[in-house]
TrEMBL record:
Keywords annotated in UniProt: Cell inner membrane, Cell membrane, Membrane, Transmembrane, Transmembrane helix
Domain DUF883: 12-57, 74-100
Protein name (database record): Stress response protein ElaB
Cited InterPro entries: DUF883_C, DUF883_N, YqjD/ElaB
Molecular function terms from GO: ribosome binding
One GO CC term on file: plasma membrane
Compartments in which it is found: Cell inner membrane
Organism the protein comes from: Rouxiella aceris
Membrane topology: Single-pass membrane protein
């Protein structure tokens, strides 16, 4: 299951790296608002920021949809097999009780 998210994480890492490099260029520039290079770099930074934000919002929606799907599957499983749910709950409670006792 971890392999499923690695390509998205790599893309996100690349996007964030690109954004940070562009913003570093903005910070290192002369700061003269009339300078064409400054205006060009600022526009690139704004574009990179909007691109990353749109990708992050779509990724977040994807993660939420996957989480809802997993929760629905777990709910269905517990409803179909209630004694398994009771057993898992009792086991988790026992382990937590033993850990908290220490």
């Amino acid at each position: 299951m971890a392999n499923q998210f690695e390509p998205q994480q790599t893309t996100l890492d690349d996007d964030l790296k690109m954004l940070s490099e562009t913003l570093e260029e903005v910070l290192k520039s002369s700061g003269d608002k009339a300078d064409e290079k400054y205006i060009e770099i600022k526009q690139r930074a704004e574009q990179a920021l909007s691109d990353v934000q749109s990708r992050l919002s779509s990724s977040a929606e994807s993660y939420c949809a996957k989480a809802r799907n997993v929760a629905q599957q777990a709910d269905t499983y517990v409803r179909d097999n209630p004694w398994h749910g009771v057993g898992v709950g009792a086991t988790v409670g026992l382990i937590l009780g033993l850990l908290l006792r220490r």
